[in-house]
């Protein structure tokens, strides 16, 4: 017999299976290695920065409040409902409440993880740079959880048909503003106040909803639209690491991109160069990967001045940028046109290598610039050695690693 | 000329085609017809080289996929049933891409393309991306893309689906032009009444084998239906299969 609890369990199982499938690609060996270095470098920098704080800082509370507000906005409601549900589940809509409650609980899981992480990172800074006691800070952090629960309840109420016309963004802004006010009171008056205000707001909202919830029905169009867009965002993230077929063409085009394409095409002509250049610049995913590696790498290389860490980061980031861009080679595999063109695999591989060459040289140039800026501290011999090593790495990557990876994938 | 000899194949765990042989001569239009699941699209996939055959040979003017993949594909232009465009490319860029891939003369091909674009009322949409096109318009893009090449074999899968009557009329005219130029055309369709305007012959597939082939009159005689009631063939086929 059909019941919503079983349906939720089934959906959640399917959803987690999909996440598991893609997360394996996200947390690949390369990324973990990079994360170890990046987290290590950032922790080292953070720890040094903390050592320098000897007295309370006036700007510490505002910064922490802004971070808490941003953390509060992380995480949407995951209903796991699909398009077909609006037809097949419609007759049983009145019994959907239990399903949605479970969805709400599940939706709190990821934000809870982020909140715990943010709390752990912020605690040493808060205790050093403000006058708040550990217990009061704990109260403040707990208020964040209570506000997040309220946030999810607000999001749920928007999905009910009678409430759909109300403007949720304003309500969410009110919630964030209310939370900010309570944290200001928590920091400057008494830490427990933030928690008390959060609990009162949460209870008040629950009380108002007890009257509305049993009588209202779902705004199916909105529920399905929101869930589809939430899932799409997740899949787009996974698409940065592995080709996700469900992610369609999110394409951006403007004059700047068109000019870049014209410039690029003149320098690197070729049937597949034509395709890859457009995919790289017009699909935000690939451009974002490249830019992220470039910017994060440059910032880290500017901040860190230990030769061994710098050398590892410099070479690792060039390698990782290349590695993360490899799925672009297969980006057009789902389109039969690509297979029907009278072109050869060698031609396609050559065009991809050319594209990757220019992108990796861009990374190398940006990172080398940072090395040169830190030349005095790192030593000129180290800097020049690294710049040459970076070039050698790019040659090895393109000439040996790339063909072997592509051959392995084909087999 | 397309030659298919003793073709058997299908998907990895699903054998669909069994010993299929036929020819499409130069300057000939052949309609591949049959009920859903008869093997029409599978046959086309084998001809395009998108599926490997279990056995048999497929040649275009004596060139096979195995002997020279590039030369073989140079001879085929394809119009799929469902438009397959690159979301990242504008209409102009799709045509440019085809010119590059087929190594066509740019000026000459663009002059052909411009006429086709005008015919299908796409000439003002050259800088549009596929997301801006309706399904019918996307199908027209695929038609322009295929018909502007100089390929000797045109493979057209369900060409009339989603097209407006004017576009269907234009497409039939274009097929006639290609036929007059000595090109071979193989098209799958369910709409026999429209297809018979240009098709010289039909090949009737049923459950992965060729059940019958011939002109409209020959098929009508074989199935004992009136030539203007060709669609009744499908009913006869269903009866033969025990479906009705």
UniProtKB/TrEMBL annotation, chain A:
<keyword id="KW-0812">Transmembrane</keyword>
<feature type="transmembrane region" description="Helical">
    <location>
        <begin position="355"/>
        <end position="373"/>
    </location>
</feature>
<dbReference type="InterPro" id="IPR010288">
    <property type="entry name" value="EcsB_ABC"/>
</dbReference>
<feature type="transmembrane region" description="Helical">
    <location>
        <begin position="289"/>
        <end position="322"/>
    </location>
</feature>
<keyword id="KW-1133">Transmembrane helix</keyword>
<feature type="transmembrane region" description="Helical">
    <location>
        <begin position="379"/>
        <end position="402"/>
    </location>
</feature>
<feature type="transmembrane region" description="Helical">
    <location>
        <begin position="108"/>
        <end position="129"/>
    </location>
</feature>
<keyword id="KW-0472">Membrane</keyword>
<dbReference type="Pfam" id="PF05975">
    <property type="entry name" value="EcsB"/>
</dbReference>
<feature type="transmembrane region" description="Helical">
    <location>
        <begin position="22"/>
        <end position="46"/>
    </location>
</feature>
<protein>
    <submittedName>
        <fullName>ABC transporter permease</fullName>
    </submittedName>
</protein>
<feature type="transmembrane region" description="Helical">
    <location>
        <begin position="58"/>
        <end position="82"/>
    </location>
</feature>
<feature type="transmembrane region" description="Helical">
    <location>
        <begin position="173"/>
        <end position="205"/>
    </location>
</feature>
TrEMBL record, chain B:
<dbReference type="InterPro" id="IPR003593">
    <property type="entry name" value="AAA+_ATPase"/>
</dbReference>
<dbReference type="Pfam" id="PF00005">
    <property type="entry name" value="ABC_tran"/>
</dbReference>
<dbReference type="GO" id="GO:0005524">
    <property type="term" value="F:ATP binding"/>
</dbReference>
<feature type="domain" description="ABC transporter">
    <location>
        <begin position="2"/>
        <end position="232"/>
    </location>
</feature>
<keyword id="KW-0813">Transport</keyword>
<dbReference type="InterPro" id="IPR051782">
    <property type="entry name" value="ABC_Transporter_VariousFunc"/>
</dbReference>
<keyword id="KW-0547">Nucleotide-binding</keyword>
<protein>
    <submittedName>
        <fullName>ABC transporter ATP-binding protein</fullName>
    </submittedName>
</protein>
<dbReference type="InterPro" id="IPR017871">
    <property type="entry name" value="ABC_transporter-like_CS"/>
</dbReference>
<dbReference type="InterPro" id="IPR027417">
    <property type="entry name" value="P-loop_NTPase"/>
</dbReference>
<dbReference type="InterPro" id="IPR003439">
    <property type="entry name" value="ABC_transporter-like_ATP-bd"/>
</dbReference>
<keyword id="KW-0067">ATP-binding</keyword>
């Amino acid at each position: 017999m059909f019941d919503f609890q079983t349906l939720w369990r089934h959906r959640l199982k399917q959803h987690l299976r999909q996440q598991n499938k893609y997360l394996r690609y996200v947390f690949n060996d390369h990324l973990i290695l990079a994360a170890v270095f990046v987290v290590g470098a950032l922790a080292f920098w953070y720890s040094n920065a903390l050592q320098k704080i000897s007295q309370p800082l006036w700007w510490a509370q505002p910064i922490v409040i802004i971070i808490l507000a941003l953390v509060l906005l992380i995480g949407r409601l995951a209903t796991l409902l699909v398009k077909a549900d609006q037809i097949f589940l419609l007759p049983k809509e009145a019994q959907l409440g239990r399903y949605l409650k479970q969805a709400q609980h599940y939706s709190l899981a990821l934000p809870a993880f982020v909140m715990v992480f943010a709390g752990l990172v912020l605690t040493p800074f808060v205790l050093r740079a403000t006058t708040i006691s550990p217990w009061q800070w704990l109260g403040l952090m707990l208020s964040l959880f209570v506000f997040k629960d309220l946030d999810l309840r607000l999001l749920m109420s928007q999905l009910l048909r009678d409430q759909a016309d109300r403007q949720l963004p304003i309500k969410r802004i009110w919630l964030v503003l209310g939370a900010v006010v309570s944290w200001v009171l928590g920091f400057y008056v008494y830490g427990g106040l933030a928690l008390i205000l959060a609990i009162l707001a949460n209870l008040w909202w629950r009380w108002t909803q007890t009257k509305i919830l049993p009588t209202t029905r779902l705004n199916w169009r909105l529920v399905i639209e929101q869930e589809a867009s939430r899932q799409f965002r997740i899949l787009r993230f996974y698409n940065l690491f592995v080709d996700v077929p469900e992610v369609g063409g999110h394409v951006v085009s403007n004059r700047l991109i068109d000019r870049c394409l014209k410039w690029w095409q003149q320098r690197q002509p070729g049937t597949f160069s034509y395709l890859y250049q457009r995919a790289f610049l017009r699909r935000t995913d690939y451009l974002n990967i490249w830019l992220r590696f470039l910017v994060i790498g440059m910032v880290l290389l500017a901040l860190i001045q230990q030769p061994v860490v710098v050398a590892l980061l410099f070479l690792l980031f060039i390698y990782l940028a290349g590695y993360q861009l490899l799925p672009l080679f297969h980006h057009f595999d789902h389109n039969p046109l690509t297979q029907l063109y009278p072109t050869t695999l060698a031609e396609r591989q050559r065009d991809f290598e050319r594209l990757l060459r220019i992108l990796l040289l861009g990374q190398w140039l940006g990172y080398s610039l940072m090395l040169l800026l830190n030349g005095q501290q790192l030593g000129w011999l180290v800097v020049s050695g690294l710049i040459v090593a970076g070039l050698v790495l790019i040659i090895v990557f393109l000439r040996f690693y790339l063909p072997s990876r592509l051959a392995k994938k084909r087999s | 000329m397309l030659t298919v000899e003793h073709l058997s194949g299908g998907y990895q765990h699903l054998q669909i085609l069994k010993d299929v042989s036929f020819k499409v001569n130069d300057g000939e239009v052949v309609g591949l017809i049959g009920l859903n699941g008869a093997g029409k699209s599978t046959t086309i996939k084998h001809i395009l080289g998108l599926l490997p055959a279990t056995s048999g040979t497929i040649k275009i003017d004596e060139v096979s996929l195995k002997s020279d993949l590039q030369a073989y594909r140079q001879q085929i232009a394809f119009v799929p049933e469902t438009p397959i465009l690159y979301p990242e490319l504008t209409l102009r860029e799709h045509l440019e891409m085809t010119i590059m891939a087929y190594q066509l003369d740019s000026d000459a091909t663009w002059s052909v393309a411009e006429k086709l674009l005008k015919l299908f009322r796409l000439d003002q949409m050259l800088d549009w991306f596929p997301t801006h096109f309706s399904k019918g318009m996307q199908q027209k893009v695929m038609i322009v893309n295929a018909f502007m090449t100089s390929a000797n074999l045109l493979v057209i899968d369900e060409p009339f689906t989603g097209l407006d009557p004017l576009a269907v009329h234009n497409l039939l005219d274009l097929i006639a032009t290609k036929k007059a130029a000595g090109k071979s055309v193989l098209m799958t369709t369910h709409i026999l009444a429209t297809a018979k305007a240009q098709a010289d012959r039909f090949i009737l597939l049923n459950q992965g084998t060729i059940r019958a082939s011939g002109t409209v009159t020959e098929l009508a005689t074989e199935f004992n239906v009136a030539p203007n009631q060709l669609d009744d063939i499908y009913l006869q086929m269903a009866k033969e299969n025990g479906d009705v």
